[in-house]
From TrEMBL:
Keywords: Membrane, Mitochondrion, Mitochondrion outer membrane, Transmembrane, Transmembrane helix. SUPFAM superfamilies: ARM repeat (SSF48371). It is found in: Mitochondrion outer membrane. Pfam families: Arm_2. Its main location: mitochondrion. It is a single-pass membrane protein. PANTHER family: ARMADILLO REPEAT CONTAINING 10, ARMADILLO REPEAT CONTAINING PROTEIN. This is Armadillo repeat-containing domain-containing protein. Residues 11-94, 107-182 form the Armadillo repeat-containing domain. It comes from the Eukaryota.
Length: 216
């Protein structure tokens, strides 16, 4: 199979072969190329379903554990495209995504994926229960703008869903969970948001204002 061919023309057998290749090869060069190809193919909704149905989500997810930065980044790109599909969102392992130790570049890729997941109300409780003790520390004026904006959108999405579905608000979350980190210490969170209202970037200020309005 020629990986340079248009991914729009891929049949289910082609995608199955890619998934098997990714699952069994130990060659990082091949792993990276397969992940790029799968990521490109996931731009088409029919391929998103095919990859899920063939068990590809778990195979791509396992690549987050490969000790090669480029492989991890390509896996995140693929998961980000695949998570545009609601059914796929329910399969993506939130714990693995949060647990991924990221570089400055990959941090944006992780948050792109988390923003996609947080847009789905059905994912709210899973995300609130995920362990993310670091999350509130990213709500800082020193944080890279792209990272900060995505963190704020992520929190805004969860806030909207919690407001509509009160059943997600309860006391059973672990102390390091997203819920406890953000809402267990509401005073600290409020202070950080108030500080960000004076951020030098207009987009950040507008997103903070929207988040605060959602919390009212």
């Amino acid at each position: 199979m020629d990986l340079s061919n248009s991914t729009h023309d891929f049949e289910a057998d082609d995608i199955q072969n890619l998934i098997h290749l990714l699952e069994y090869t130990k060659d990082p060069t091949i792993q990276e190329q397969v992940l790029i190809t799968l990521s490109n193919s996931a731009a088409f909704s029919v391929n998103q379903d095919t990859i899920r149905n063939l068990g590809g989500l778990s195979v791509v997810g396992k690549m987050l554990s490969v000790p090669v930065t480029n492989i991890k980044e390509k896996a995140l790109n693929a998961l980000n495209n695949l998570s545009m599909n609601i059914k796929n969102q329910e399969v993506v392992k939130v714990k693995k995504v949060f647990g991924y130790s990221v570089s400055a570049y990959s941090e944006v890729q992780v948050l792109k994926l988390l923003v996609n997941l947080s847009a789905n109300p059905a994912m709210t409780e899973h995300l609130l229960n995920a362990q993310a003790p670091f999350l509130l520390s990213l709500c800082d004026s020193c944080t890279n703008k792209d990272v900060l904006l995505r963190v704020l959108v992520f929190i805004t999405n969860l806030t909207k869903h919690m407001k509509k579905d009160k059943s997600t608000v309860h006391s059973e979350y672990n102390e390091d969970s997203v819920f406890s980190v953000l809402w267990g210490n509401s005073t600290l969170c409020a202070q950080k948001l108030a500080s960000l209202l004076h951020h030098n970037d207009t987009e950040v200020r507008e997103q903070v204002a929207e988040l605060i309005m959602q919390q009212c």
